[in-house]
Amino acid sequence: MEPNKDKQESSDSEEGTKGKMTLSLALVTLISAFGSSFQYGYNVSVINSPAPYMQDFYNQTYTDRHGVFMDKNFQTLLWSLTVSMYPLGGFFGSLMVGPLVNNCGRKGTLLINNLFSIAAAILMGTSEIAKTFEVIILSRVIMGIYAGLASNVVPMFLGEMAPKNLRGAIGVVPQLFITIGILIAQILGLNSILGNAEGKILAWEVFCGLCWGKIPPSHHHLVTFVAGWPVLLGLTGIPSVIQLLTLPFFPESPRYLLIQKGNEEQARQALQRLRGWDDVDDEIEEMRLEDQSEKEEGQMSVLTLCTFRGLRWQLISIVVMMMGQQLSGVNAVFYYADRIFQSAGVETNNVQYVTVSIGAINVVMTCLAVFIVESLGRRILLLAGFGLCCGSCAVLTLALNLQNTVSWMSYLSIVCVILYIIGHAIGASPIPFVMITEMFLQSSRPAAFMVGGSVHWLCNFAVGLLFLYMEAGLGAYSFLIFCAICLVTMVYIFFVVPETKNKTFMEINKIMAKRNKVEIQTEKEELMDIHTIQAGQAEKKEISNSDL
């Protein structure tokens, strides 16, 4: 009976350590994701719809200054810079992650980061009034730095605060808000709202028509002042202001407070507030074990991480997953989507609404990932996601090449686009960032995010730079390259990446230590326990011998 009783007690204890979604944890998750991740997604697609009007502004500004029209090649160069400076800024932002999170904390870094967004929003919102397109390009760099920091710090911050049974679901929330940001930018960028130079007149006329039946003469200057696309670009500062005002009222990452700052009391208070109960001894003890196992290592730099044998396979895994995420063709699918829907009979004027519908599918499927990641696990979603993307790219290549000869191939192309978006939304997009949080301990996590984030943004930049050349040279066969990348990533995940669902950071570290063929320091403690037991047994024998 006693073994069964011990098993029951241990299962009850494990059940007791499971965290729940408290109000405090839910609010800090939503505020962090809305104030930071949302803007990453928003600025990915915010310039797509108003692009022709912004380019007209570039040309008009140049003409006003120099008295001649801008050379077409120069205009193309300026617009390419406007688009590409965002991922390039993201790369620079990723390089700032380690120093900032180690010195200012996770929450502190998010608060500081808001200053980048607010400054860029003001510059972009006033660019038309100031008649300068240079500040738009500068602001795209600044927003890229902001997004580079946000895309790495938010998953790290939330992953360190979440209980192990909710870590996957909470870790997917930032990606959910990225997709929501993309969708909101697509909706606001519609021609009938803010996606053109005259959108401000339409919007203001609707408002005034409802209130007064016409625009009052005293309000005509407002119509002139409130332009469509500058407002669209400037709105990105609002979530930052909200986060700047609300996030200070929530606790810092308990792991940062205990392991890096050595402040157990503050860490305990933060945990108690996040968990909704006072007994957090088990989590504190787990953090202590992690702290003891890493004391000799200290805070790892990127160089140390890249040469440290004990983290070799974790590092390779995040590089492969991040490259697979960005090089799997998601940008190409969105690029081709308009053309695919037009070939299926959708009118050119209505393609923008189809783009919004694709964005909505992206949001719905990422939302689904939040709810299934803890039940199905990370590996299943990664394999299913990359598998769907791989199959979709292969069939899409066939459908695009045959759509001029076989009428129903256009509809098959649409199905492939939708399946691809579903695959990317449930696995390829959200899970890699969750895995970075889970596969590294406190001392190496900032450096790991710097590496993973840098690979993410460099691959994003490379795809944006090279895809047009690929499309011009290979056409629809470009998708075979993406198909191969998805397949290689899927095979790697199947053979190397472990399941991390419902495991502590130390348990995951032990799993990877076996693959790295190293012993982790917590095993020394286990040996000490064995020696203690053996010493106790020897002492008992001596006592029994003396009794005899």
TrEMBL record:
- InterPro entries for the chain: GLUT, MFS_dom, MFS_sugar_transport-like, MFS_trans_sf, Sugar/inositol_transpt, Sugar_transporter_CS
Name the major location. membrane
What cellular component GO annotations does this protein have?
sarcolemma
Gene3D superfamilies (UniProt xref): MFS general substrate transporter like domains
Q: Does the keyword Transmembrane apply?
A: yes
Source species, domain of life? Eukaryota
| Catalytic reaction annotation | D-fructose(out) = D-fructose(in)
Which residues span the membrane?
Answer: 21-42, 77-98, 110-130, 136-158, 170-194, 227-250, 315-337, 353-373, 380-402, 408-435, 447-470, 476-497
Localization per Swiss-Prot or TrEMBL: Cell membrane, Sarcolemma; Cell membrane
One GO BP annotation is: fructose import across plasma membrane
Q: Does the keyword Methyltransferase apply?
A: no
Q: Which UniProt keywords apply?
A: Cell membrane, Membrane, Sugar transport, Transmembrane, Transmembrane helix, Transport
Topology of the protein relative to the lipid bilayer: Multi-pass membrane protein
Q: Major facilitator superfamily (MFS) profile domain location, by residue?
A: 29-501
One GO MF annotation is: fructose transmembrane transporter activity
Family that this chain belongs to: Belongs to the major facilitator superfamily. Sugar transporter (TC 2.A.1.1) family. Glucose transporter subfamily.
Q: What is this protein called?
A: Solute carrier family 2, facilitated glucose transporter member 5
This chain is encoded by the gene named: Slc2a5_0
